[in-house]
Design brief:
Elements (H helix, E strand, L loop, with lengths): L6 E4 L2 E6 L10 H15 L6 E6 L3 E3 L4 H4 L5 H20 L4 E5 L2 E3 L1 H8 L2 E4 L4 E3 L13 H4 L5 H10 L3 E2 H7 L4 E2 L3 H12 L4 H34 L2 H11 L9
Parallel strand pairs: 2-3, 3-5, 4-6, 5-7, 6-8, 7-10
Antiparallel strand pairs: 1-2, 8-9
Protein name: Enoyl-CoA hydratase
Keywords: Lyase
Enzyme class: lyase
Length: 255
């Protein structure tokens, strides 16, 4: 059976692959659901010590599936998708084993939030990043909960507002990724080997210390930000921005 998130288990490591290159590994409802099911399997395997989240194709993740969210006609239509996105990010944060993002490709919009939700992120030389929400009439609302605790404040100010692209080293300098590496696979293998030396209890307790402050933000803000994101995506301005993006033209607010 075809799957958008195949995974294999190699010793103490589960390796997941975002494998929907046709839409640049966008976070469709189907992809999110399959990732949840895979993480269920991780919970059922006490021998696992780490999850590696990689990708096929030249894009790690393009963010939410614009085709899916733009098809809604009301705020309620977007609520389910935004709730699913929030639950996916929270699931990664709450998973009792570390999650490593293995990136060597483009990362856009919600894909940056996914990157920041992972405990460790390794980015290769082909990696580029951009918070493109501002250019289609929305904002990085939900992903701000994982991004703002990790990014340097001035970097967040700049890239939230400009939508500019930046590379792996700049992403590492601002705290979005852990390591900018010329050899992602080798670096990830070194990290998983080091993690495998930890005990299950030790890993669980140590991860909880780093994720607790972010989960507290989710407790306070997730519902409000998800509702706000749903409102923005079905707004007239966002519908124009998404249409312009898909039609490769300038939106009507650019004169």
């Amino acid at each position: 059976m075809n799957t958008l998130v195949p995974y294999t288990v190699e010793g103490a490591v589960a390796r997941f692959t975002l494998d929907s290159p046709g839409n640049r590994n966008a976070l469709s409802t189907t992809l999110i659901d399959e990732l949840h099911r895979g993480l269920d399997d991780v919970l059922g395997n006490p021998g696992l010590r780490a999850v590696v989240l990689g990708h096929s194709g030249g894009t790690f993740c393009a963010g939410v599936d614009l085709a899916q969210v733009s098809s809604g006609r009301s705020e309620a239509d977007g609520d389910g998708h935004m709730d699913g996105f929030v639950k996916m990010l929270r699931r990664i944060l709450e998973l009792p084993v570390p999650v490593i993002a293995a990136i060597d490709g483009h990362v856009r919009a919600g894909g940056l939030g996914l990157t920041a939700a992972c405990d460790i992120a390794v980015a290769g030389p082909a990696s580029t990043f951009a918070l493109t929400e501002v250019r289609i009439g929305v904002g990085p609302a939900i992903i701000s909960m994982t991004l703002l605790p990790k990014m340097k404040p001035r970097a967040a100010d700049r890239y939230f507002l400009t939508g500019e692209k930046f590379g792996a080293q700049e992403a590492a300098d601002m705290g979005l990724v852990t390591i900018a590496s010329d050899d992602v696979e080798s670096t990830v293998s070194e990290l998983t080997a080091a993690i495998a030396l930890g005990s299950p209890q030790g890993l669980r307790a140590s991860k909880a210390l780093t994720t607790e402050p972010i989960l507290e933000i989710f407790d306070r803000k997730a519902d409000r930000l998800a509702r706000g994101a749903a409102r923005l995506f079905v707004s007239e301005e966002a519908q124009e921005g998404i249409a312009a993006f898909r039609e490769r033209r300038q939106p009507n607010w650019i004169q």
